[in-house]
Design a protein that fits this description.
Layout (H helix, E strand, L loop, with lengths): L1 H10 L11 H9 L14 H13 L6 H15 L3
Helix pairs in contact: 2-4, 3-4
Length: 82
Amino acid sequence: MVLFSVLTLLLAPPQEKAKPRGKAEYERICGACHELGVGTANPRTRAQWTAVVDDMAAMGAAGTKAELKRVVDYLAANFGTK
């Protein structure tokens, strides 16, 4: 029984890691106009990321308020100032 369990774990296909919350929205919304990674080269505070996302939304970035909030959450958590 133990051998079967070990073999099952070893032979099971690797599970895909879940993307961090907000990454999919960031990729879809921001990636529509920008090469991903360009805007995240310089860390910013949450307030600065909020201002950037608000500016992009004013220029036509397509996302709901909830999606844009998740983008800010993602950017602040992963590209924020420490």
